[in-house]
Amino acid sequence: MATLRIPRKYQPLYILFQLFLLIQSQLVLCYQYKVGDLNAWNIPSSANRDVYVKWSKNHLFKLGDSLLFLYPPSEDSVIQVTKQNYNSCNLKNPILYMNNGNSLFNITRPGEFYFTSGAEGHCEKLQKLHISIGGENGTTYEDVDSPAFAPSASSPSYPNVFGSIPVQSANSNSSSSSGKLQMSMFAFVGLLFLGSTIL
């Protein structure tokens, strides 16, 4: 097997390039979370009635992540509901309905998200999930039903399975400037590294 030989004078650049790729890969990682972990999506057992409350509190979700709901499609489903319907276990008028047994919900915007089983009586037995996704700088949003997330009059009435398109916030310039600052710091460290290896 052939090995890559890099001339000695280019080795610091090669190491810097490798470091750059490593940092960039850490910045874009998104995760797919299996809801309930080993318990999957079903009615919680009497010994572990608050499994979904504990599960959501033990995970830190961010934009780009996704939730995977696994369940037998002939016995169950998943619906996204409003906060009011979540609290009252009202299954009518869901925001989103998924019933294929392998349902994936992509997190595309910050806010509060409420899910419950679409099967009658399951919500009352605590088969429901609430997750909170923070915005930039750790800000959170009250809930998905707020006027900020309400569709406009010209919006189509059908649900979007992949979530809505994120709206660029007013402070998006701060995120791009922080990216520039990060790249500047990276370049500075790289120059220091190169200077020390050349001397």
TrEMBL record:
What are the protein's GO molecular function terms? electron transfer activity
Subcellular location, record wording: Cell membrane
Tell me which residues make up the Phytocyanin domain: 31-135
Membrane topology qualifier: Lipid-anchor; GPI-anchor
Gene Ontology CC: plasma membrane; side of membrane
Q: Which UniProt keywords apply?
A: Cell membrane, Disulfide bond, Glycoprotein, GPI-anchor, Lipoprotein, Membrane, Signal
Q: Which family does it belong to?
A: Belongs to the early nodulin-like (ENODL) family.
What protein is this chain from? Phytocyanin domain-containing protein
